[in-house]
Amino acid sequence: MASSVRKRIVKDRQMYLMLLPVILFFIIWHYIPMWGARIAFQDVRYVGANQWAGVKHFKMLFSSPVFFNVFKNTLIISAMKMFIIFPLPIILAFMLNEVSSTGYRKGIQSVIYLPHFLSWVVIAGLFISMLASPDGAVNKVRIFFHLKPISYMTSTHHIRWVFVFSEIWRSIGWDSILYIAAINSISPTLYEAATIDGATPLQQAFNITLPAIVPTIITVFILNLGFFMNAGFDQVFNMMNDAVINTVDIIDTYVYRVGLMQGNYSLGTAAGLFKGVIGLFLILSTDKLSRKVTGEGVW
Amino acid sequence: MKRFLTTLLLLAVVASIGFAGGSQDSKPAAAATGDVPTIRIVGKDFSPAEDVNIQFLAKVQAGLEEYTGQKVKLELVKVPDGAYKEKLNLMLMGGDIPDLIYFQGGDEAIAKQGLLVDLKPYVDKSAVMQKALMDFNKKRIANYPYLLWLAPPRARVALVREDWFKEAGGKTPVTVDDYYNLFKTLKKNHPDAFVMTDTGNTNRMDFTFEQAFGETATWIKQGGSYVYKKVSNAEKEKLAFYQKLYKEGLFDKDYVTTKWDTMEDKLYTNKVAMVFGTSGVVCDIYDTKLKKNQGVGLVALPPAKGVGQGYAVSTAKETRGWAISTQSKNPDLVFKLLDFMATDKGQLLDRYGIEGIHYTVTDGKYAFTDKKSDWWPRFNEVMSYKGPLPVLGPVGAKSWEFLDKYVVGDPDFPIPADLAPTWDALTNLYKEYSFKIITGEYSIDKFDEFVKKWYDMGGDKITDYAQGKLK
Predict the structure, then answer these.
(1) Dihedral, CA atoms, B115, B121, B125, B129, nearest 10 degrees?
(2) What is the spatial distance between Cα B459 and Cα B227, in angstroms, rounded to a whole number?
């Protein structure tokens, strides 16, 4: 057994060598730092060894009057993003697949990929000025149609939707790449046969394209669930303001404020660890559920 | 080809391991070069990567050598890019603790672990410091002896466009009512503009109005015990006033999403008549930029007079400043550096910049160059220092005059670490209610509901703590 593994490694050594930097990257930047998570159970000392504190920081965290509000906000914003945004790149990929002009399709793809490369600082600036009341572009349109201007960025009813919409604007094109690639790998003969049999484009989409990309959809869905608790620090941090802080304060912004900015590293790490454990639980349970229901999982 | 690719990949692996090691720029240097003691300094925007900082440091080193009569080596420590406060703390936690550290918060946890030198004995013995420190600085150092900061308090002074102000009568307002009348006239004359804006909250304008409404300190006496100012009756009156300003279109509708840069932009593009600027050189910068954009300058206005009048300045501790590490092998010499920088020679260096770049001296006459606007003091700004040329313009100088006249000590105290999460929650609660009240979403009567919630969420614990700290 061991010798066959060795043989395979020797045979595909160039492949494994190519993989090595990636493995090193994950070890150095993802696995070694996990050891640092132990400070959630310690009192940090700048000089000398840290002191064991047990679950003191977790108790402090859970007794904070805002922590459960922060946790609730994280769940709501994540769920809104997950369930509203997730199907959109799939739909977009289907639509792009139907565009027959290659030049036109590539043009559209380039345009919708671009926002992905903008930082949230820039996007937040754009949205804040676009949604300003009453002088922002959106409110100018509302006023033109005799509608009352809305201060979207300061309204607790609208701000989460601003997050969802801006996330869609930024990510939908980029996220569709995977599905476009999966669709492109479907054999054209299936479509030709379906066309001869008289299937409409819609029937082809539902009976050929969709079943063919279901494994990709499930894999992406499960992997996304692993990041469920990452409600989007950069986005929330840049778009947050005093008016909506209690509606949009998420675990990551709380960790940044109470942990990093106030130097309570143990408390911040405790909050981060709590988030990580939930993420792990979500990904494992969804994988299990998916295996039961569809027979497909991540591993 | 395969061999070439393999070699290339191997190089990539070696390089990735090398880069993963991170920059070694901030690795502790030897405490001394030969017999010459080294002082390692870490400061905000004081990077060794900038040539101007190195040139400045060489001049400071020469000045310090002359001042102490001994050879010294000064060395700047690079802080990783990013928010200074955050990166500095991470650097210190990594075990790299320079001799002289500039803090912008986050120092208490380090002081508690005995890593910062008690500066009070040094300050008490230093004639230079006794002359340079303002009264509130002395109180701060007595309460918290780990940070030293020689600079005027960072109060925000009201600044109004000179032409619009004159058009509205040009009479300096004294009371809150005077201010309100001025605002109404400004709005009447310029209906398309707001009178004032702030940056995300009302912290800037509070400097002008808080004392007038009776918020004379962070914790004020109400009915025989100390009450946090944000849940006091005075706060209720102040919020009602702000609500009126907002409702009447005097206060910017978008103040909560306004940042410091957009605030400035609104001033320079005729969207607001007033802003509130940090006293001193910042006021001059606004004045210069407005002149450049609109051909008109600013007028500084004093804080409103009512129950009190002034800029409340915490005497609990410095919120920023220099600290000496107990790990330093030469704490006395490090303090000598701070001492030197507070002398007239040190201030000339720190305030004027580098001769030949930021200023020139011809036949004993000083003149600033165009590059002076790129220079800012790396160490301190001693308020009483009088140099050969005025460092501040008329607006900045006026703002300092107001500070000198109106600064009021505020016997505040830092919130302990175990109450920090509760304090964070209470602060957020205030932010939500104050915004909703100011914008009219809530009536002012909701203030009582806020006060009840504030106490229920843990404000009672902090208030009890305050009674013990302030008695």
Answers:
(1) 60
(2) 10
Q: Which of A65, A243, A260 sits opposite B435 (nearest CB)?
A: A243
Distance CA B139, CA B137 (A): 5
Three-state secondary structure call for residue B276: strand
Q: Any idea which residue has 């936690």 for tokens?
A: B93
Q: How far apart are CA B202 and CA B435, in angstroms?
A: 9
8 A C-beta contact, residue B227 and residue B267: no
- DSSP character string of A269-290: HHHHHHHHHHHHHHHHHHHHHH
> Which residues 174-203 on chain B approach chain A with CB closer than 8 angstroms?
200-201
The b-or-e profile of B247-259 (16+ CB within 10 A means b, else e) is eeebbbbbbbbbe
The rounded distance, in Å, linking the Cα atoms of A249 and A246 is 6
Map B69-120 to HEC letters: CCCCEEEECCCCCCCHHHHHHHHHHCCCCCCEEEECCCHHHHHHCCCECCCH
Tell whether B254 lies on the interface with A, counting CB pairs under 8 A: yes
Coil, strand or helix at B365: strand
- What is the distance of C-alpha B22 from the center of its chain? 32
Q: Walk me through the domains of chain B, giving residue ranges and CATH numbers.
A: 32-152+319-383 (3.40.190.10), 156-314+411-470 (3.40.190.10)
Q: Report how far residue A67's alpha carbon sits from residue A55's, in angstroms, rounded to the nearest whole number.
A: 16
**If contacts are CB pairs under 8 Å, which of residues 19-48 in chain B contact chain A?**
20
Å from A224 to nearest chain B CA?
27
Tell me the domains of chain A and their CATH numbers: 1-54 (no CATH), 59-294 (1.10.3720.10)
Q: How far apart are CA B349 and CA B379, in angstroms?
A: 10
Task: Name the CA radius of gyration of chain B, rounded.
Answer: 25
pLDDT tens-digit profile, chain A (299 residues) = 667 888 888 899 999 999 999 999 999 998 998 888 899 999 888 888 888 999 999 998 888 888 889 999 999 999 999 899 999 999 999 999 888 888 998 899 889 999 999 999 999 999 999 998 888 999 999 999 999 999 999 999 999 999 999 999 999 999 999 999 999 999 999 999 999 999 998 899 889 999 999 989 988 888 888 788 888 899 999 999 999 999 999 999 988 888 877 778 898 899 889 988 888 888 888 888 878 877 777 66
Q: What is the pTM of this model?
A: 0.80
- Residues 68-97 on B with a CB inside 8 Å of A are 83, 85-86, 89, 92-93, 95, 97
Q: Report which DSSP code applies to B356.
A: T
**Which chain A residue shows the shortest CA-CA distance from B203?**
A242
Q: How far apart are CA B212 and CA B215, in angstroms?
A: 7
DSSP annotation of B37? E
Residues of A in contact with B431 (CB under 8 A): 242-243, 245-246
Surface-to-core class of residue A148, CB atoms within 10 Å of its CB (0-12 exposed, 13-18 middle, 19+ buried): exposed
Q: CA B148, B153, B154, B158: dihedral to nearest 10 degrees?
A: -170
What contacts B416, CB < 8 A, 6 or more positions away?
A: B465
Place of tokens 């402090």: A60
Question: Which DSSP state fits B171?
Answer: P
Cβ of residue A243 closer than 8 Å to a chain B Cβ: yes
**Spatial CA neighbour of A112 closest among A208, A185, A179, A205:** A179
Mean pLDDT of B400-425: 88
Beta pairing partners, B227? B220
Which tens digit of pLDDT belongs to each residue from B46-103?
999 999 999 999 999 999 999 999 999 999 999 887 788 888 988 888 888 999 999 9
Q: Is B429 on the interface with A (CB under 8 A)?
A: yes
B76 membership: H or E segment, kind and range: strand B73-76
Residues 6 or more apart whose CB falls under 8 angstroms from that of B201 comprise: A242, B256, B431, B434, B435
CA distance B317 to B136: 9
